[in-house]
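Researcher: Can you fold this with PMV in place?
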Amino acid sequence: MRVTAKAQPNIALIKYWGKRDTRRNLPAVGSISITLADLSTTMSVEFDASLGDDILIVNDRDNIDMLPRIKRCLDNVLGEGRQSARVDSHCNFPIAAGLASSASAFAALVVAADGAVGPGRDTAELASLAGMASGSAARSLCGGYVELQNCGADISVQSLRSADEWPLKVVVAITATAPKPVGSTDAMEISRKTSPFFGRWIDQQAEDLADARAAIGARDFAKLASVAEHNCLKMHSVMWGSRPPVIYWNSATLACMQTVRELQSQGVAVFFTIDAGPQVKAVCEPAAEPRVREALAATAGVEDILVSGLGAGAGLIADE
Ligand code: PMV
């Protein structure tokens, strides 16, 4: 039987950077994200003993690069004695370019794989399984404003607010689409081992999480903007202070930040955030979206613009 799931990437407003358990891929800090609506990965899984080995197809092409991670994730969901799988993935946005494509991919994969044999697991179990493959993927199990908490030996995810309750928009400025120079897993370890700022980053996270939680609770845009930009720049400072330094920005990344600053000085409700890649994600109130889109599109070095609202968490869908 072929089972299909769809998941959306999420953008962290309070970031996860660093692991406390590399074997289980547990994050060193909690995080808060928003799940997008318009960017998505659709993943179909079909188990068939006659295949002999797993097959991964991404956007209609055989893909061997991602296959080991997909295999490991399927083993974690179903056990190593499982049948071989044909996994068919469709992603409507650039892959491995700092747009959280692994978050939507692994959230969709665990939901589809679980659905193929059940479905049986609750959101917490699915989030743990997705998180083992990609830390941020756990958050894509839920919709809207999502908090991932480090609780004891495990993680939990919960929606703090639905997308409908505070329907902000995200304008993504694409400044480069080449794969990133160093993956986030390796980069996090470099930061943990060498960045003089890593300890302070961990110590201050609870305060940033509390501020963001309160801002989301009160739908206070200015308060959310302030703590999200602070937390983003602090994470990048940890990266820049690593040896070797981890620098994901290019000159267009900085130009986009400048554009957002100019919009803010004109009273536009917008703030930026940047992940392990050179893209700038501008979060804004819906009325500000056309102006933010236009300003970022006119910024030097911006190659493309994607716009998304906030949406729901991962789930099974009817097979196409
Ligand atoms: O889930 P990973 O291993 O790709 O790490 C994601 C790290 C950041 O995107 C930089 C921050 C975050 O919380 O999503």
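Model: Folded with PMV in place. The pocket of PMV is lined by residues 12, 15-17, 31, 102, 134-136, 184-185, 275-276 (CB under 6 Å).
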